[in-house]
């Protein structure tokens, strides 16, 4: 009988060829043995916990166990991750490698062990002490609902993250031109304008959806669909795991090309990110791994940048805006991961960028002062009333009447509603779940109340 290691190696080869689960018949064909012998081999390895049996009778299928469920694999992979380089020496070594002409560098493929060897809360991509320090610097004090920090700094975040992420994609708009675009000034039909406006809508979606749906595959797929709206030739590719071959310029990295395997690793990345307790480490893990996997036909890096904000939103930490990042520095960090699975330059870049974001949005929060307790009390009712006025055509009094409050509270809500409608505009409407076009039509109609 074959030894256990040889059987596991064959199963790993089957998975890499696209068979994430397989039947005993498929295994027998691969091994060129009888069905009875194949079942005996599979039963032996299933007993060790390195294979998992699913289904019964003719529907029985097998798959490799997650490393989290296997002590031997867990200890082996933890040892591997303990050696992840992040020192200044490692950074310089990686820079020297990246300065080597492209023609002299070896072709690099996707390394599944980069994700599978990662054990949430036991192994780390960021140095653990750095992740803890960044979390303490960036977290919002006090108990607040998920997403509170991001909502409070939404207006500057929309501009910062939309512009910086688009700039890294070669967008020609200046920061000032981006602000004007979001105020409705200038043409929105230019492809660079479409990219920026897509970012804005995607960030608004994220701020609204993450507190409700958390870190999940549908949220990230919707982010991709919003980011790439009107930018992909095939609308079926929006939010869909790709079925086409992709190539990345200026690197020897060749991403995975098997759709089933891409989908499996995509779900694997999200599942592990959900388990990470430190939101800063989770943000870094998502940013790095979504870009490395390249699960979508296009727009992978911008999707990874926005997705990195999801754990930060859930834990009310400062968002990550990627402001003042040079394209060359960003590309170097990515290529280091693509070709070497080396996160040393990415760690350095992330630390600089996140500390810059923490300082920026801390100032924004301080300028707001303490939140008004009355506004907090009426927050949901005020939001509902504004939607009724702007989208439903209600008068102020009728909108307030829908809340069915005592007379004194109704008067308070009416006052808050009147004040808020005076300052409502297309650049601050996302907090009330209104679209820019809805608010623009309401303003053009003379702000009817």
Structure at a glance:
The chain has helices at residues 4-16, 24-31, 35-47, 71-81, 88-98, 113-116, 128-138, 148-152, 154-167, 175-182, 191-213, 217-227, 259-275, 279-293, 300-307, 309-314, 327-340, 344-368, 373-377, 379-390, 396-401, 407-423, 436-444, and strands spanning 51-54, 61-64, 108-109, 253-254. It has 449 residues and is mostly helical. α2 packs across α3.
Task: Outline the secondary-structure elements.
Layout: H1 4-16, H2 24-31, H3 35-47, E1 51-54, E2 61-64, H4 71-81, H5 88-98, E3 108-109, H6 113-116, H7 128-138, H8 148-152, H9 154-167, H10 175-182, H11 191-213, H12 217-227, E4 253-254, H13 259-275, H14 279-293, H15 300-307, H16 309-314, H17 327-340, H18 344-368, H19 373-377, H20 379-390, H21 396-401, H22 407-423, H23 436-444
Parallel strand pairs: 3-4
Antiparallel strand pairs: 1-2
Can you walk through the features of this model?
Helix 11 (191-213) packs antiparallel against helix 12 and helix 17 (327-340) crosses helix 18. The strands form two sheets. Strands 1-2 form a two-stranded antiparallel ribbon. Strands 3-4 form a two-stranded parallel sheet. It starts with a helix and ends in a 5-residue tail after the last helix. It is mostly helical and 449 residues long. The protein has 23 helices and four strands. It folds into three domains: 4-65, Orthogonal Bundle (Arc Repressor Mutant, subunit A); 76-368, Orthogonal Bundle (Fic-like fold); 373-444, no CATH class.
């Amino acid at each position: 009988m074959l030894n256990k290691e040889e059987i596991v190696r064959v199963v790993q080869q089957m998975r890499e060829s696209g068979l994430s689960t397989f039947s005993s018949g498929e295994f027998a064909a691969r091994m060129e043995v009888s069905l009875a012998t194949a079942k005996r081999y599979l039963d032996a390895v299933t007993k060790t916990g390195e294979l998992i049996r699913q289904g019964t009778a003719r529907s029985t299928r097998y798959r490799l166990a997650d490393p989290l469920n296997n002590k031997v694999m867990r200890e082996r992979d933890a040892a591997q991750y303990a050696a992840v380089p992040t020192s200044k020496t490692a950074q310089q070594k990686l820079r020297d490698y990246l300065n080597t002409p492209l023609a002299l560098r070896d072709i690099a493929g996707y390394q599944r062990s980069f994700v599978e060897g990662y054990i949430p809360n036991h192994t780390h991509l960021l140095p653990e002490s750095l992740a803890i320090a960044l979390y303490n610097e960036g977290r919002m004090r006090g108990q607040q609902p998920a997403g509170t920090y991001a909502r409070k700094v939404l207006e500057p975040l929309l501009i910062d993250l939309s512009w910086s992420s688009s700039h890294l994609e070669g967008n020609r708009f200046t920061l000032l031109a981006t602000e004007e675009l979001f105020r409705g000034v200038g043409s929105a039909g230019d492809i660079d304008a479409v990219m920026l406006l897509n970012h804005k809508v995607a960030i608004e979606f994220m701020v609204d959806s993450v507190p409700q749906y958390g870190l999940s595959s549908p949220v990230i797929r919707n982010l991709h669909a919003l980011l790439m709206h009107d930018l992909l030739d095939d609308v079926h590719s929006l939010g869909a795991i790709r079925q086409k071959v992709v190539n990345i310029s200026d690197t020897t990295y060749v991403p995975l090309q098997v759709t089933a395997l891409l989908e499996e690793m995509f779900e694997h990345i999200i599942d592990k990110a959900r388990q990470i307790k430190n939101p800063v480490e989770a943000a870094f893990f998502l940013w790095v791994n979504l870009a490395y996997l390249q699960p979508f036909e296009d727009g992978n890096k911008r999707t990874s940048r926005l997705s990195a904000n999801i754990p930060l939103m859930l834990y009310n930490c400062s968002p990550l805006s990627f402001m003042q990042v040079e394209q060359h520095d960003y590309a170097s960090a990515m290529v280091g991961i693509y070709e070497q699975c080396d996160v040393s330059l990415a760690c350095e870049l992330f630390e600089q960028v996140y500390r810059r974001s923490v300082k920026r949005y801390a100032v924004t929060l301080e300028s707001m002062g303490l939140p008004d307790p009355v506004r907090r009390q009426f927050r949901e009712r005020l939001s509902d009333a504004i939607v009724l006025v702007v989208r439903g055509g209600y008068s102020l009094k009728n909108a307030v009447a829908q809340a069915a409050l005592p007379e004194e509270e109704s008067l308070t809500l009416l006052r808050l509603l009147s004040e808020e409608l005076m300052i409502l505009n297309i650049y601050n409407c996302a907090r009330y779940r209104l679209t820019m076009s809805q608010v623009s039509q309401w303003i053009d109609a003379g702000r009817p109340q």
